[in-house]
């Protein structure tokens, strides 16, 4: 968030973002980040838990301990913002963490991933804060502390026709960088002076995973799938694969189910070709004249460009902007190459990097200001906008 974005913001926000071996958290006070920390969990520490979802109390205690060491008083925190986990049904926006959400995340109903822990941890901490306030007789300015998630990755606002797959058993589903792309869309609207209801943008997030999503009228009406084989080649993911070749691999007897999944996600893309997921290394080697790196880089750019342009068809070519974001957007060689291939469709805007903690804090201040609708999650019914 820029200084102008922070004007008028009040309150203290704790932000939680869990990864497979790390727990990131930050504290924002009146719009300024006053603490940011990454807790790294050792293999020995994690070995005590049979499943990642069993780690919620351990990580909760670790954050509370770290806050205390930094002189942050729990009772001063007004709101806890958490990275969204894998849960459906949902749309974009903010949700208070409730029993239904906890059940779906803790049982990994929609997928087992460390991001599911964020909401559980945030809710644990909010409960601790409210207990402490009650014990000390405190009356907080914003009422009870509540944990929220913002723009969960499986948020689904796709047009009905975008859901249809080649056979009924394979409907298209969503899993994309909802948090960052929605934050980037808000930034673009602020800086361009446009209104969400009148704007259509295709946003390409480029990191370890790459997703392309179409934002129209404040909704995300189509998107590629960051994990499910519906998308471009990425630094570490195979992207869309030929089905017959994949079937042959599955039944070859050479690989286990988990080994094949790892080939597609984690050991695909640049990792499969060069043993690295660092696109800076790929670009460097390509610039040194190494032909295999040059060829891969051309394919990487072309894959992304194809997916961007194909989403233009969803809105009949009526696109106001194409936005490139994520860590790879720092590479001018890559953004220039993509721009050359897609700028005929719409002007290209580049917002490099991502900051999930800042994006969550931004959502938190929108909540505290009463400027957004709070959705209540129901595990069995789609939330109506």
Overview of the molecule:
It contains 13 helices and twelve strands. It has 385 residues and is α/β, with parallel strands linked by helices. It has two domains: 172 residues, Nucleotidyltransferase, domain 5; 151 residues, Nucleotidyltransferase, domain 5 (2-Layer Sandwich), CATH 3.30.420. It has a seven-stranded mixed sheet with strand order 3-2-1-4-6-5-12, with helices on both faces. Strands 9-8-7-10-11 form a five-stranded mixed sheet, sandwiched between helices. Helix 12 links the parallel strand 10 and strand 11. Helix 10 crosses helix 11 and helix 11 crosses helix 12. The model has no long low-confidence stretch (mean pLDDT 94).
| Strand percentage | 15-25%
Mind describing the biggest β-sheet?
Answer: 7 strands, mixed
Specify Rg, calculated over alpha carbons. 21 Å
Give the topology string: H per helix, E per strand.
EEEHHEEHHEHHEEEHHHHHEHEHE
Strand elements, count: 12
**Low-pLDDT segments, ≥5 res:** none
Oligomeric status:
single chain
Q: Quote the average pLDDT.
A: 94
- What's the name of the CATH homologous superfamily of the largest domain? ATPase, nucleotide binding domain
């Amino acid at each position: 968030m820029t200084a102008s974005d922070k004007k008028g913001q009040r309150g203290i926000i704790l932000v939680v973002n869990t990864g497979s071996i790390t727990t990131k958290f930050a504290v924002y006070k009146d719009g300024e980040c006053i603490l940011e920390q990454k807790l790294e969990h050792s293999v020995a520490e994690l070995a005590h838990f049979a499943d990642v979802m069993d780690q919620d109390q351990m990580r909760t205690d670790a954050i509370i301990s770290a806050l205390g060491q930094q002189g942050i008083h729990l009772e001063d925190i007004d709101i806890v913002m958490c990275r969204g986990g894998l849960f459906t049904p949902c749309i974009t926006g903010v949700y208070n963490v409730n029993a239904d959400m906890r059940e779906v995340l803790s049982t990994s109903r929609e997928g087992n991933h460390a991001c599911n822990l964020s909401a559980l941890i945030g809710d644990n901490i909010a409960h601790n804060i409210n207990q402490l306030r009650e014990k000390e007789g405190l009356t907080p300015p914003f009422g009870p502390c509540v944990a929220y998630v913002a723009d969960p990755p499986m948020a689904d606002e796709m047009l009905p026709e975008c859901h249809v797959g080649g056979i009924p058993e394979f409907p298209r589903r969503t899993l994309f960088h909802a948090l960052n792309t929605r934050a980037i869309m808000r930034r673009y609207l602020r800086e361009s002076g446009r209104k969400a209801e009148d704007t259509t943008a295709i946003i390409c997030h480029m990191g370890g995973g790459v997703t392309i999503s179409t934002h129209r009228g404040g909704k995300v009406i189509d998107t590629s799938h960051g994990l499910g084989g519906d998308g471009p080649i990425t630094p570490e993911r195979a992207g869309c694969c030929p089905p017959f070749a994949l079937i042959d691999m599955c039944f070859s007897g050479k690989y286990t189910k988990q080994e094949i999944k790892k080939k597609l996600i984690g050991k695909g893309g640049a990792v499969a070709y060069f043993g690295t997921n660092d696109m800076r290394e790929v670009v460097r080697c390509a610039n040194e004249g190494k032909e295999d790196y040059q060829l891969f880089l051309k394919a990487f750019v072309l894959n992304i460009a194809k997916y961007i342009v194909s989403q233009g068809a969803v809105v009949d070519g009526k696109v106001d902007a194409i936005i490139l974001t994520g860590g790879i957007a720092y590479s001018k060689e890559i953004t220039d190459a993509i721009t050359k291939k897609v700028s005929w469709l719409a002007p290209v805007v580049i917002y490099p990097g991502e900051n999930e903690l800042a994006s969550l804090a931004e959502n938190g201040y929108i909540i505290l200001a009463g400027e957004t609708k709070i959705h209540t999650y129901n595990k069995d019914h789609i939330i109506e906008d």
